[in-house]
Amino acid sequence: MSGISTHVLDTSRGRPAAGVEATLARRAAGGGWEEIGRGTTDGDGRIAALLPKGRPLAAGEHRLTFALGPWFEAQGVEAFYPEASVVFRVRDPGQHHHVPLLLSPFGYSTYRGS
Predict the structure, then answer these.
(1) For residues 21 and 62, what is the distance between their CA atoms, to the nearest angstrom?
(2) Checking phi first, is residue 19 left (phi over 0); if not, alpha (psi -120 to 50) or beta?
(3) Average confidence (pLDDT) per 10 residues, the chain, 114 residues
(4) Which of 3, 54, 82, 96 is the most exposed place for a label (fewest CB within 10 A)?
(5) Measured between alpha carbons, how far is 94 from 91 in angstroms, rounded to an integer?
């Protein structure tokens, strides 16, 4: 399996964060960002494939941006971060890249998952 996936967990409630919108971008040659995919977390807090079907993953720097403000507002929770952006490097496009996000109203963390 190749591509990029994510899993968002609300650590303040101890459950998946369903309905979080995420945008995937790749750094372009000029240094700007080109959107290459997007999705919304499912009931288990996952987006299994952020790249559209038929679009191969390319080496380079990527940015995954999570729209946290609207999600927390929908939960009726006041939060500090309106979004979280995770920039990471794809060295081997043949590998699967899983980028989880652990969030709470006043903090978030991420790591390279499997």
Answers:
(1) 17
(2) left
(3) 88 97 96 96 96 92 98 97 97 95 97 92
(4) 54
(5) 9
Residues 6+ apart with CB under 8 A from 76: none
The pLDDT of residue 114? 87
Which residue segment(s) compose the domain that 98 sits in?
Answer: 3-110
Closest CA to 112 of 84, 95, 83: 95
How many folded domains does the chain comprise? 1
> What is the domain-level CATH number for residue 65?
2.60.40.180
The one-letter amino acid code at 21 reads E
State the Cα–Cα distance between residues 67 and 103, nearest whole angstrom.
12
Residue in this structure with the two tokens 């929908």, named with its chain if needed: 74
- Backbone phi, psi, residue 72, to 5°: -65, -40
Structure-block tokens of residue 7: 């899993």
CB 101 within 8 A of CB 6: yes
